[in-house]
Design a protein that fits this description.
The complex is a heterodimer of chains A (344) and B (445). Chain A has a domain of 121 residues. Chain A has 15 helices and no strands. Chain B has 445 residues and is α/β, with parallel strands linked by helices. The N and C termini of chain B lie far apart (48 Å). The chains are: A mainly alpha (344), B alpha/beta (445).
Chain lengths: 344, 445
C-alpha cells in the first residue's frame, strides 16, 4: 500500500514552548522565595506552601472529574495558583486556611468561569481576597518573627510590618492632638527610622506574607522569567515605576517630592505582585499599550490604597481591579494594523 | 544612508534556519523524467487553455496552454514528446487540476528560436512585457502572480523603487541563495530589464545577513557591471521576505492596508523571477525549469536541483536518494508557508521553491489546548493583527468581528501559530475565516 503522509495547514514547524513549560517555569522562578520563606519563617512556611499546592491541585482534579473535562492538573497552572496563594498568607494563619484559600481560588476563581484561560481575575489573588474578607484577624496577623530580623524591619519597633508601621505613624501624626505625646514621638521616630529598613526589605527578614518579603529572591526568579520571555517588561516596569513615582511625589511626610521611593518599592507585596501576579497571562491585557496602561493603573490604585485607603497594602486589590478592566483595555489599545491609518 | 539603522520590520520570529544541509551544495541538473504533468493553473489568475490534443507531438519550450486574459500566463512543454492525456491530475495546491501529460521521447528537442536577441535592451516596454507573458512567467518566490501584470502598474501609480527579493527567509530553502551565487549575472541583467520596463530610478537588492557570500557576490558584480543598484543586508528575521515587510525594511514605506506595493511606488520581484525575465526577454526562452531545494531529515540526499516544470515529486525525490522510512510529511515550499502534499504524483510547478520532507516525529501536530492570552501571537504578528482574537472569532463563527479585526490583512506567514504555546492552529482558522468573510461579502453584494 502507498505510504500515507501527514497533511495539515502551515506552518509545519513550531517553537518548543507549551503552556506547562510556561507554568512550571514560573513555579521554578518562585522557588528561591520559597526557600527564603522557610529560612525566615521556619518549617511552618513549608507546611503552608504544601497545603496550598495540594489543595489547589486536588480541587482542580476533582472539579475536572465532576465536570467531565479533560484532567488538567498536569499543566502546572493549579500548582502555580496554590503556590501563589500560599505566598500571599501570613505564616501565622491556621493550617486549614491555605487549603480553603486554594479551594476557593480554583473553584470560584477559575472553574466557575470555565477553567484555565477563561478566568477574568487572578485566581490566587481572588483566593487571598476571600480569606482576607472572611478571616481578617488571621490574615493580618504578622507577628511571626523572621529569623535574623524583626517584623517591622526597624529595631525600635517590634510588632507590625513596615507598611503598617508607616500607616499607623501617619495616622498618629495627622491627629496629634488625640494621642499622648509619647505615641506622637514614637510615630515621629518610626518615620525617621523607616529608611533604615531598606536592607531588611531587600533581603526579606521582615514581617509579611510568606513569599513577598524578600525582594532579592523574587528578583532572581524575575530575571530568569524575563530572560525566558515568559514575563515582559511592560507590566512590571510600568507598575513599579508608577508606584515609585507616586510614592516619591505624594508619599513623604515633608510635603511633595519627599517620599522614600525604595521603601515603597521593596515593602509589601509589590515585587511579588508586579512580576508574578500582574503578569499572569490570562488576566492581563494582550496589547503593548494595554499592558503599559495596566501597569500604570495597578500602580495608581496601589498608591491610593497605601496612602489614603484603609489597608496598609494595596497590591492585591489593585491587580484584581485592573484584571476587571483587562478586556476593555484590550479593546481600546488594539495594535495598529500594518499600513493602517495613523492614530490622530 | 541609514546604515546605522537595522533594516527590518516590526514583529516577526526567529525559527531555526536549517539551511546548512543545502546552502553549500551547487545546483544539480535533474535528469528528464519519462512523463511530465503540466497543469493549466500554475499562477494566480485565469487558468490557461490547452491548445494541444492528445496524441500531438510537442517540443520542449512549445506553448501548450494559452493564457486566457491579461491576468493569466501560458504554460509550455518542458520536454519533447507526445501528449498522452489532458485530464485532471493531482496538483500541489489540491487535487484535480486539468493538466497536460507529456510522455518524453527522451531526446529533449527544443522549439527553434530560443536564442540570444541582439539589442534586447533597446526593445520597447510593450514588447518586453509581451515576451515576459509569452514566456509564462509567474512569481517564482511561491506566490506565482503573473510577472507581466506586476510589471504593468497603471499610469497613475508611478514606480520609483524596484526591490529585488533575495531574502529567502523561509527556513530550509536555499534555491534563491544558490542562484545568486551561481548565476548572479543573469539576475542583474534581468533586473536591468525590469528597471527599463518600470522606469524606476532606484533599484535595491535585499538579502538577509545570513547569506554573506551572496551579498559579496552581488556587490562585486554590481560594481563590475557598473550598474546603479544598491545591495542591502537585511536583518535575519522571518518573514523578512514578505513583500510588505521587505518594502518597509528597505524604504521605510508602509504599503497601505488592502493596498499593493505600487501604492507606495514600489515593485518587488524574486531573484528567480528576475533571472527568468532575462531568459524571456534576451533569449525568448519560456519558463520550463526552476531550482528546487529538496531537503529535510526525511530525504536521503538533500540537494538543490534544477528541475523541469511538471516533474512529478516522486521522480524528484527518487533522484535525491528517495525517502527515508521515517518520512512523515512532504511540503512544497518552506516549513512556514509551504503546503503539505498528500500525493507524490503532483508535479513541480512554477512556484515550487522547495520540497521539504519532515520526519514522522516532526510531522504530528501537538494537541491544542486553550488560549491563555499570552499574547505571543500579537507580539510577533508582522501585520499588527491580533491572531488570538481572529482565531476565537472564527471558531465561534463571529465572521463580522473577524472582519472588523482585519482578518483579510493577514499574510498567512505563520508566525503566530509558530509561537503559540497552546498549539492553536491559528493560520488554519484564519485561512478558513478569510474564506467565510469573502463568501459573506459576496452574498451581501
Amino acid at each position: 500500500m502507498e505510504k500515507k503522509f501527514f497533511v495539515s495547514s502551515s506552518p509545519h514547524i513550531y517553537d518548543q514552548e507549551s503552556i506547562p513549560k510556561i507554568m512550571y517555569s514560573v513555579c521554578l522562578a518562585l522557588l528561591p522565595a520559597a526557600v527564603g520563606a522557610v529560612y525566615f519563617f521556619g518549617v511552618r512556611a513549608l507546611y503552608i506552601i504544601i497545603i496550598g499546592i495540594v489543595s489547589a491541585v486536588v480541587t482542580e482534579g476533582v472539579l475536572c472529574k465532576l465536570m467531565k473535562k479533560p484532567l488538567t492538573i498536569n499543566d502546572g497552572s493549579a500548582l502555580l495558583t496554590g503556590l501563589l496563594l500560599a505566598y500571599n498568607v501570613s505564616v501565622q494563619v491556621p493550617l486549614w486556611m491555605p487549603a480553603v484559600g486554594s479551594f476557593f481560588a480554583i473553584a470560584v476563581g477559575k472553574f466557575v468561569f470555565g477553567g484555565l484561560g477563561y478566568n477574568p481575575m487572578n485566581p490566587a489573588l481572588l483566593g487571598r481576597a476571600f480569606l482576607l474578607a472572611s478571616w481578617p484577624t488571621h490574615m493580618r496577623n504578622f507577628s511571626g518573627l523572621p529569623r535574623n530580623g524583626s517584623v517591622s524591619g526597624i529595631d525600635v519597633i517590634t510588632s507590625p510590618t513596615p507598611l503598617e508601621v508607616l500607616k499607623t505613624a501617619k495616622d498618629v501624626l495627622q491627629n496629634q492632638s488625640q494621642f499622648p505625646i509619647e505615641k506622637v514621638n514614637e510615630a515621629k521616630q518610626a518615620i525617621l527610622e523607616l529608611p533604615n529598613s531598606i536592607g531588611h526589605l531587600f533581603w526579606g527578614n521582615v514581617g509579611g506574607c510568606l513569599g513577598e518579603t524578600s525582594a532579592f529572591l523574587l528578583l532572581i526568579g524575575a530575571v530568569f522569567l524575563m530572560y525566558k520571555r515568559y514575563v515582559g517588561w511592560k507590566i512590571p516596569f510600568s507598575y513599579i515605576g508608577t508606584v515609585a513615582l507616586l510614592s516619591w511625589v505624594f508619599g513623604g511626610k515633608d510635603g511633595l517630592f519627599s517620599g522614600y521611593v525604595l521603601f515603597h518599592v521593596f515593602s509589601g507585596g509589590l515585587i511579588l505582585g508586579a512580576f508574578y501576579m500582574a503578569t499572569d497571562m490570562v488576566t492581563t491585557p494582550v496589547t503593548f499599550r494595554g499592558r503599559i496602561y495596566f501597569g500604570i493603573g495597578c500602580g495608581i490604585i496601589t498608591v491610593l490604597i497605601r496612602q489614603i485607603g484603609g489597608y496598609p497594602e494595596g497590591v492585591s486589590y489593585s491587580i484584581l481591579l485592573m484584571n476587571l478592566l483587562t478586556p476593555m483595555l484590550d479593546r481600546w489599545t488594539k495594535p495598529r494594523l500594518f499600513g493602517g491609518a495613523k492614530k490622530k | 544612508m541609514g546604515l546605522l539603522k537595522s533594516r527590518t520590520f516590526s514583529g516577526g520570529i526567529h525559527p531555526p534556519e536549517s539551511k546548512h544541509s543545502t546552502e553549500k551544495k551547487a545546483i544539480e541538473k535533474c535528469p528528464l523524467p519519462s512523463t511530465v504533468v503540466i497543469p493549466v493553473q500554475q499562477h494566480i489568475g485565469a487558468p490557461a487553455k490547452p491548445v494541444v490534443e492528445k496524441g500531438d507531438t510537442v517540443l520542449a519550450g512549445q506553448s501548450i496552454c494559452e493564457s486566457t486574459g491579461f491576468v493569466s500566463v501560458p504554460s509550455h512543454a518542458s520536454i519533447s514528446g507526445t501528449v498522452k492525456a489532458i485530464e485532471k491530475r493531482p496538483h500541489p495546491l489540491g487535487s484535480g487540476v486539468l493538466s497536460v501529460v507529456i510522455e518524453s521521447d527522451g531526446e529533449d528537442k527544443w522549439v527553434p528560436g530560443i536564442e540570444y536577441q541582439d539589442n534586447y535592451l533597446e526593445l520597447d516596454k510593450k514588447e518586453m512585457l509581451s515576451r515576459i507573458q509569452a514566456a509564462g512567467l509567474a512569481g517564482m518566490g511561491g506566490a506565482t502572480f503573473p510577472t507581466h501584470v506586476k510589471l504593468s502598474p497603471p499610469p497613475d501609480k508611478p514606480i520609483n523603487t524596484f526591490i529585488l527579493n533575495g531574502v529567502e527567509c523561509e527556513p530550509f530553502l536555499t534555491s534563491d541563495h544558490r542562484l545568486m551565487l551561481e548565476d548572479p549575472k543573469k539576475i542583474l541583467l534581468g533586473m536591468q530589464i525590469i528597471l527599463k520596463i518600470l522606469g524606476a530610478s532606484r533599484a535595491v537588492i535585499g538579502i538577509e545577513k545570513n547569506k554573506p557570500d551572496a551579498i559579496v557576490v552581488m556587490q562585486r558584480l554590481v560594481a563590475e557591471l557598473k550598474l546603479p543598484f544598491e545591495v542591502f543586508a537585511l536583518k535575519v528575521k522571518y518573514p523578512q521576505g514578505a513583500e510588505k515587510q521587505l518594502i518597509k525594511a528597505v524604504t521605510g514605506r508602509s504599503v497601505p492596508a488592502g493596498g499593493l506595493p505600487m501604492d507606495v511606488g514600489c515593485v518587488v520581484q524574486n531573484v528567480g523571477t528576475a533571472a527568468a525575465i532575462y531568459d524571456a526577454v534576451a533569449f525568448k526562452r519560456p519558463l520550463v525549469e526552476r531550482i528546487v531545494t529538496v531537503t529535510g531529515k526525511g530525504i536521503h540526499d538533500t540537494k538543490n536541483v534544477l528541475a523541469r516544470i511538471g516533474t512529478p515529486f516522486s521522480f524528484l525525490l527518487e533522484y535525491c536518494g528517495s525517502l527515508n522510512d521515517t518520512a512523515g510529511k512532504i511540503i512544497m515550499g518552506g516549513p512556514m508557508m509551504g503546503l503539505a502534499q498528500s500525493s507524490l504524483d503532483a508535479p513541480v510547478i512554477k512556484g515550487t521553491s522547495g520540497l521539504l520532507v519532515l520526519e514522522e516525529n516532526q510531522s504530528k501536530r501537538f494537541a491544542e489546548s486553550v488560549c491563555i492570552s499570552c499574547a505571543r501571537c500579537i507580539d510577533v504578528c508582522p501585520m499588527g493583527l491580533m491572531p488570538k482574537m481572529l482565531g476565537a472569532f472564527v471558531k465561534n463563527d463571529h465572521i463580522d468581528d473577524a472582519k472588523k479585526y482585519n482578518i483579510l490583512d493577514c499574510i498567512e506567514c505563520g508566525s503566530c501559530a509558530y509561537v503559540c504555546p497552546a498549539h492553536i492552529n491559528l493560520v488554519h482558522l484564519i485561512k478558513y475565516g478569510k474564506m467565510q468573510v469573502v463568501k459573506k461579502t459576496k452574498k451581501a453584494s
